[in-house]
Design goal:
The protein has six helices and 14 strands. By secondary structure, the chain is of the alpha/beta class. Strands 1, 2, 3, 4, 5, 6, 7, 8, 9, 10, 11, 12, 13 and 14 form a 14-stranded mixed β-sheet that branches. The longest helix has 18 residues. The structure holds flavin-adenine dinucleotide. Flavin-adenine dinucleotide (FAD) binds next to α1, β2, β8, β13 and β14.
Length: 316
Amino acid sequence: MVGQRVHVVGAGIIGLSIAHEVARRGHTVTVLAEQRAQASVSSVAAAVWFPYRSGTSPSLPHWLLAARARFEQLAGDPATGVDLREGLVVERDHAVDRSWTAAVPQHHEATPGELPAGAVAGMWATVPVISMPHYLPWLEQACADRGVTFTARRVARVEDVAGGADLVVVAAGMGSGALLGDAALYPVHGQIVRLPNPGLTQWVTDTAHPEGLTYVVPRRDDIVCGGVAQVGSWATHPDPAVEQAILRRVTALVPALAGLPVLSRATGLRPARDALRLEPVAGYSVPVIACYGHGGAGVTLSWGCAEAVADLVDRT
Ligand SMILES: Cc1cc2nc3c(=O)[nH]c(=O)nc-3n(C[C@H](O)[C@H](O)[C@H](O)COP(=O)(O)OP(=O)(O)OC[C@H]3O[C@@H](n4cnc5c(N)ncnc54)[C@H](O)[C@@H]3O)c2cc1C
């Protein structure tokens, strides 16, 4: 049904992408969120297109492909902050899952000489790298251009925003668990440090590094270095010892980073579930659709999931 009044709870990458897609289909959308995107976990994302801790779902390959293709289109417009960049996925296990390469036309095997010590293989891939300080304001504006309106507020109960809506979408990241009484959602704490970019373009991820998750993602204006993936930790302050360890690991991986001053640091709680939740939820006075639990891949899956939610809205 077109022309429905849709309330979206959450203004991170997931809530905004959904708002955009649902408005594009001709519905009237209001986003209700405690924090704007620039203050959300989404603003902390590196953000390279890669399905890290994305949980399981039969639709995952489709969402990955759809989002990658959409970002590739957006890379044609410099104002979006999206660039296509080559990088290296370091592998430390011969049994590593390479199914993500099905969504990436440009990829090839790394040679042994291109790998760090301890790696058994690696894959070069050209994927979207999204400079979030450019992209999130662009996406907010793209929503506004489609008539989406924004209300700054904390939502305590889904029923509190059901009035005046034909349908509610819960896309509130870690806040979704409390809103829908879902104990299956858990935080995976992350920490990053940002350095000035001396001109690097290639990214590298070493997710199974023996001393901890390690990645270097050069963006438009800086380089995001990580990281940490502490399951169940609600820590919200950067730990200086962890930062020093990150800097040691990334400098070993990319020697050009040695001695660069720290621009800024941040932490974020990846909203994780063993299986991402994208489905209608029964039991409310209006139809409710859940879309959360994207773990370390919320940016990577954003457009794919947003299109799937818009399909559900159309069918409701
Ligand atoms: C260090 C780090 C690096 C990452 N790197 C990448 C990467 O390279 N690639 C990638 O794809 N992903 C990456 N991620 C993961 C990605 O950031 C998340 O998957 C994504 O941000 C989740 O988006 P979201 O919109 O669901 O949640 P959020 O960004 O947390 O947004 C939640 C929104 O809901 C609102 N909200 C919550 N509760 C309520 C409530 N009760 N009432 C009203 N509003 C509410 C918030 O205010 C906010 O607006 C990274 C994450 C971290 C921490």
